[in-house]
Amino acid sequence: MALVDTFRPVSPSTSLGAPPSPQREGLAELEAWVERIAALTQPDRVHWVDGSAAENAALLRELVAEGKLIKLNPEWRPGSYLARSHPGDVARVEGRTFIASEHEADAGPTNNWIAPDEIRGTLDTLFAGSMRGRTLYVVPFSLGTVGGPLSHIGVQLTDSAYAVASIGMMTRVGTDVLAQIAEGAPWVRTVHSVGAPLAPGEADAAWPCNDEKYIVHFPDTLEVWSFGSGYGGNAILAKKCVALRIASVIGRDEGWLAEHMLLIRVIDPTGRAYHLAAAFPSACGKTNLAMLRPTIPGWRVETLGDDIAWIRPGADGRMWAINPEAGFFGVAPGTGEATNVTAVETLWGNTIFTNVALRPDGDVWWEGLTDEAPPRLTDWEGNDWTPASGRPAAHPNSRFTVGAAQCPQIAADWEDPNGVPLDAILFGGRRATNVPLVLEATDWAHGVFLGSTISSEKTAAAEGTVGELRRDPFAMLPFCGYNMADYFGHWLSVGERVRFDRAPRIFQVNWFRKGADGRFLWPGFGENARVIDWIIRRIQGTAPAVSTPIGRIPAPGSLNLDGIDVPEADLDELFAIDKESWLREADLTEEFYATFGDRIPAALTAELSALRYRLRGAPN
Ligand code: OXD
Ligand code: MN
Predict the structure, then answer these.
(1) Less crowded by CB within 10 Å, the N or C end of the chain?
(2) Among residues 85, 80, 166, 69, which one has the least CA distance to residue 347?
(3) For residue 399, which atom of ligand 1 is closest to its CA?
């Protein structure tokens, strides 16, 4: 039976269908809200998503029948689909992403602020009738296992069936979330429309969207409104909008951290397990590290999450972390046997691909999947493509969406509602210069200082010099729902709530340092396990380090380099600390801090002063 047969046709002002739950009392508020939004957006139908496999199968069949998904050849990629977006709707739109806090200063200088009253008026106009001719799906979702002590729930109203299928993989969706709402659990309200109403009889586009886009967060009322885009973080609102921007605000108020971090368990050759969270800006290899296959014998990594971690001080004085998501929404190009064989294996089937290339045999391909491109493809825009075409076959931000359970090295207990105790937190950026391969913070406040200074050289910057830095503190620049100076202060205060001897140790890593000749100095990928090995031996107290003005680095000989050939000169360059460059970098940090005025915590300006003091005292 097609899904459409299960819809209850409604005239928005009268019947709205009913949530498929027997407990109806506590749902009155939700039903009233759905009614209000339906009255505004005027969908033809309302469908309450129950999260069942049958419902999902029907939804996918509908999408294929409507030409919105291409079913891949089940012989190569069972249960998998390809979506091709509108060429103007291919990525998160940071310039159209707003924080509508009551006070502008609460959004801070790194966010686009918009006055809530003003934008509510705009949204009312945009959403009026925006779902005409479409179905409004009511999608109850849980971030973290339903009912878990660290979990949070929300509801997305959307007119995109593609978004519904994606949310179903990225979160836990269904009636047990409604049961939570019925019991009075707080929930976040999110509304999404592709902004493409259909006139009666009008044919739909394969990827409906609108040129005008708005992704608006209301941190004071914990709401998100997204208009005009069907793509990724603009449409799967549970991900960046709720699990990071809104959750960062909830975490600020409740005393925990919502972070743009992968989460892994590392098991050493003696069988002892350690848990690491790591923040890297987008496109710096988070998914690769989350699925690391160590090259050093005896070490194993189990994946817990690849993009978001929620971290809370526990009663035992440790920090406990969960991955609130249930799937991976990863960048396809650059994911291949050589870089991330685990991801390639994860994608064997049951995957929705977006904007990758299609092979003549009905499978998919993207740059980096194999060394050599197939001789003939259909590119992400549906055009014929050959290696001579002179353009990428897959869009550089093409994606895979897949359930985390399919990852061959997912930890058996990855859904444990209590999460895992953190032993270390890593911060990394893409730095051709200055930042050594690994650096240990001297204490929590120094670690927060390191996180606040995370940056990458702008690609336009001359390589080998300290160029203009693209700041991405804690890799949260596009994802913090409030003033980042307050966020730095929040990190400092959360650190005070863990026992000093149980707090995770903080490290900065940089896989991307280049030599004067422009070559990467470190092989990266599986070999990054050597850096993790040193980090874990630091935690155990068995690896020696030397103090430098910028932090602690491995003592000579303490990094395990058995079996790889990193020339002595490259190692020296990987850890070289150039006093003058670092003093210039400290000036840039001061400029960056100045953009926050006097909201920057005094502990961080003290760290900056101490850094300069130590640098000035260092030999040239
Ligand atoms: C993502 C991002 O999609 O960070 O995860 O941009
Ligand atoms: Mn991300």
Answers:
(1) C
(2) 80
(3) 3
What spacing in Å lies between the alpha carbon of 475 and ligand 2's midpoint? Answer: 9
Q: Is 407 tagged catalytic?
A: no
User: Residue 127: in which H helix or E strand, if any?
Assistant: helix 116-127
Give me 460's structure tokens: 């336009």
User: Is residue 233 in contact with ligand 1, taking CB distance under 6 Å?
Assistant: yes
**CATH class belonging to 259-326+416-617:** alpha beta
Q: Residue 24: what pLDDT? A: 62
Rounded to an integer, the average pLDDT of 280-303 is 92
Which residues does 263 contact at the CB level (< 8 Å), separation at least 6?
275, 276, 277, 290, 304, 305, 309, 321, 322, 323, 420
At the top level of CATH, which class does the domain 327-406 belong to?
mainly beta
CATH 3.90.228.20, the chain: domain bounds: 259-326+416-617
pLDDT surpasses 90 at 474: yes
pLDDT single digits (tens) 357-388: 999 999 999 999 999 999 999 999 999 999 99
pLDDT at 21: 52
307 lines ligand 1 (CB under 6 A): yes
Is it the case that residue 227 has pLDDT exceeding 50?
yes
What is the 236 CA–ligand 1 centroid distance (Å)?
Answer: 12
pLDDT in tens, 540-587: 999 999 999 999 999 999 999 999 999 999 999 999 999 999 999 999
Neighbouring CB atoms inside 10 A of 254's CB total 10
Residue 431 near residue 455 (C-beta atoms within 8 A) = yes
How much distance in Å is there from the Cα of 228 to the middle of ligand 1? Answer: 19
Pocket test for ligand 1, best of 94, 240, 259 (most atoms within 8 A of CB): 240
Q: Is 282 in the pocket of ligand 1 (CB under 6 A)?
A: yes
Ligand nearest to the CA of 329: 1
- Give the nearest ligand 1 atom to 307 CA: 5
Distance (Å) of CA 24 to CA 15, 20, 30, 136: 15, 9, 10, 20
Identify the sign of the CA torsion 135, 140, 145, 150.
positive
How far away, in angstroms, is 309 Cα from ligand 2 center? Answer: 11
Catalytic residue among 241, 284, 407, 480: 284
Residue 13: band (very low, low, confident or very high) from pLDDT cuts 50, 70, 90: very low
Residue nearest to atom 1 of ligand 1 (CA): 282
Who surrounds ion ligand 2 at CB < 5 A? 307
The ligand that comes nearest to the alpha carbon of residue 331 is 1
Q: Is the pLDDT of residue 3 over 90?
A: no
* Mean pLDDT rounded to a whole number for the chain: 93
Q: Where in the chain is the domain with CATH 3.40.449.10?
A: 3-69+92-254
What pLDDT is attached to residue 458?
Answer: 65
Cβ atoms of 438 and 527 within 8 Å: the answer is: no
CATH 2.170.8.10 domain locations along the chain: 327-406
Tell me, which fold does domain 3-69+92-254 have in CATH? Phosphoenolpyruvate Carboxykinase; domain 1 (3.40.449)
Which mutation among 331, 355, 398, 430 tests ligand 1's pocket best, with the greatest number of atoms within 8 A of CB?
Answer: 331
Of residues 9 and 26, more confidently modeled: 26
